[in-house]
Amino acid sequence: ARLQLDVVTIFPEYLSPLRESLLGRAIADGLIDLSVHDLRAYAPDRHRTVDDTPYGGGAGMVMKADVWGRALDDVVRPGPGTTLVVPTPAGRPFNQSVAAELATRRQIVFACGRYEGIDQRVADHAATTVEVLELSIGDYVLAGGEAAVLVMVEAIARLIPGVLGNPLSAVTDSFGDASVGLLEYPSYTRPLSYQGLEVPPVLLSGHHAAIARWRRDESLRRTARRRPDLIAALDPATLDRADSSI
Ligand code: 6GU
């Protein structure tokens, strides 16, 4: 039950980092299959046109539905195991729970738009045969979906069993299941003293309960300072009695 990843783009070379490091190993190990498709191969004209001016006027160009339709007819396997992801700053937020959901799929097709986006009928028509998710990776505007696909694929792939060296590290980090909505605590390794800065002594104490308490306090303190929105969203049931002193 390996995951099939397909990326459709007018810049296929942009996706070459996907064959490096973590992802490259998962592909070599047969855990993931990756295919990158050039959208222009599906353009019928001599100039391989993929965009046109927007109905209603306005700036920029819109990617053509018929070109995208031919590409997706070729790539998408219809049925409940497939999700079509359309990266767009106008999408729902991509987050760890969306990544975890996508890591359970059989096929994920990423449709990378450029310019002012893709004719909306492409997503609307695809939704008659597969799940379609229009997703944003944050509140800023990228020139195209390619960089967002690099981000989403890395977040998804590391959740697939066998892709990470240590399967526990996928759930103990920030936004993973174990720390339920808190940022990760700070980490230290040798040497004991660096540029006059010492490792917090509790980490050398061998007192496992004290270390766990210190790490949780650091997570809470860091989250309160950097992400007050996450503190506000915390499920009170996940707080312990000692947490209230932070
Ligand atoms: Cl997914 N795509 C583009 N083009 N811009 C974005 C984005 C996605 N997420 C945030 N900005």
From TrEMBL:
Belongs to the RNA methyltransferase TrmD family. GO terms for molecular function: tRNA (guanine(37)-N1)-methyltransferase activity. GO terms for cellular component: cytosol. Specifically methylates guanosine-37 in various tRNAs. It catalyses: guanosine(37) in tRNA + S-adenosyl-L-methionine = N(1)-methylguanosine(37) in tRNA + S-adenosyl-L-homocysteine + H(+). Homodimer. It is found in: Cytoplasm. Its main location: cytoplasm. It holds the Pfam family tRNA_m1G_MT. CDD domains: TrmD-like (cd18080). Its EC number is 2.1.1.228. Keywords: Cytoplasm, Methyltransferase, S-adenosyl-L-methionine, Transferase, tRNA processing. Residues 3-232 form the tRNA methyltransferase TRMD/TRM10-type domain. S-adenosyl-L-methionine binds at residues 113, 137-142. The gene is trmD. The lineage of its organism: Bacteria, Bacillati, Actinomycetota, Actinomycetes, Nakamurellales. One of its GO terms (biological process) is tRNA N1-guanine methylation. This is tRNA (guanine-N(1)-)-methyltransferase.
